[in-house]
Write a structure and sequence with these properties.
alpha/beta, Rossmann fold, seven-stranded parallel sheet, six-stranded parallel sheet, 16 helices
Length: about 375
């Protein structure tokens, strides 16, 4: 089967990692996989190592219509059986190219309704999805989002996959590598410092403001150090807020980090108090690394975590977040027990299982063709 994936970039991000896992697995299964992208990034190396066919598209800006022309030419040359689009820009351009060439097309939904406002780009994406052959969501909330608009369209739920063998082989980071004494207790956050307009007036999906306020409540404990991994437009504001709260010396902002698993294996607690999610990669990776969790009590986390596996907190209550972090760090035996239960829960989400499910979706869409 010939599969063309279209994605804007291969930078740090959940969708980019999942594409790199899926394309590598499908290639291993014997399919001919192509990936078209505009900008490279750390996830490109996995594709290169897996002998995936990569195609870098040129552009002057994000609205350059020659991107569409290049996609049309690539479709003509590679003759894909199916086109699989990832992330808004390529959902639009890849979707138009698939429609014009009458190539079967599936779209991946990485989030839920709360992630979207009524901008013209999102309205165009929503209209174009009506022409797709199938929608694959990574969560039940993503599935329900599209049910509102296209009840009769083929829709599937395929959870994100984890490369467990690689995660198991990753060695924990050392305190020396971070320039910290071993007496420190690390609170870890990994995610994008976004600054977008969402529904209900939300500006920052990851809720970093309340997380920093929670950490300020823990300033009396000199052993607690917070490590933030990620970048994005909201990073300067986070730096300023840490200064305003008087905890700048207790917050390490590492920027984008290629390999977070060693940090997850060192940290005393992984915190994700997002306002909303899809099927969050970083939380799943922390589970696979055996790192204790404090997460926001939202439906997206509840779909795969319970109180026996994580401490679920009110995302709008910094004091409650702080208490949960302190409880986790002060009771390592109890925290490890929850982390072990979460790790066992994560074992079913393998990259191989994800690829098998996508292969079935592709075949469903392509019937009555036979391979």
């Amino acid at each position: 089967m010939r599969i063309l994936n279209c994605i804007p970039n291969l930078i740090h991000g959940g969708a980019q990692r999942q594409l790199s896992y899926l394309a590598s697995e499908l290639t291993r299964m014997g399919h001919r996989v192509h990936v078209a992208f505009l900008d490279g990034g750390p996830n490109l190396s996995r594709l290169l190592a897996s002998q995936v066919n990569i195609h870098r598209l040129l552009r002057r800006n994000n609205y350059d219509l020659t991107i569409l022309w290049q996609l049309l030419r690539l479709i003509k040359d590679s003759k894909p059986d199916i086109i699989h689009t990832w992330i808004g820009q390529m959902d639009i351009l890849g979707g138009i190219a698939a429609t014009l060439t009458r190539t079967p097309w599936i779209i991946r939904e990485p989030s839920s309704e709360k992630a979207y406002s009524n901008s013209w780009k999102l309205l165009l994406r929503r209209w174009l999805v009506g022409k797709a052959d199938a929608i694959v969501s990574n969560s039940s909330l993503g599935y329900l989002y599209w049910q509102k608009y296209y009840k009769n369209k083929a829709r599937y739920i395929i959870p994100n996959g984890l490369p467990f063998q690689e995660i198991e082989c990753a060695l924990p980071c050392s305190f020396d590598e971070l320039g910290l004494p071993p007496s420190k207790k690390i609170v870890l956050f990994v995610g994008r410092f976004d600054s977008e307009k969402y529904k209900n007036g939300l500006k920052h999906a990851k809720n970093l403001d309340n997380l920093l306020v929670a950490l300020a409540h823990l300033r009396d404990n000199p052993d607690i150090v917070s490590v933030f991994c990620g970048d994005g437009p909201y990073l300067p504001a986070i730096q300023q807020l840490a200064c305003d709260l008087g905890i700048a010396d207790r917050v390490m902002l590492l920027g984008a980090v290629d390999h977070v698993w060693p940090l997850m294996k060192l940290a005393g607690v992984f915190v994700s108090v997002s306002h909303f999610e899809g099927f969050p990669n970083t939380v799943l990776e922390a589970m696979a690394c055996g790192c204790p969790l404090v997460v926001s009590d939202i439906p997206e986390h509840r779909q795969f975590l319970n109180e026996g596996q994580a401490l679920l907190v009110n995302r709008l209550q910094p004091k409650e977040i702080a208490r949960a972090i302190k409880r986790t760090l002060d009771n390592p035996k109890e925290a490890r027990r929850r982390a072990q239960m979460a790790k066992e829960q994560a074992q079913k989400w393998t990259t191989a299982a994800m690829a098998d499910q996508y292969e079935r979706v592709y075949r469903d869409v392509l019937e009555p063709k036979h391979y």
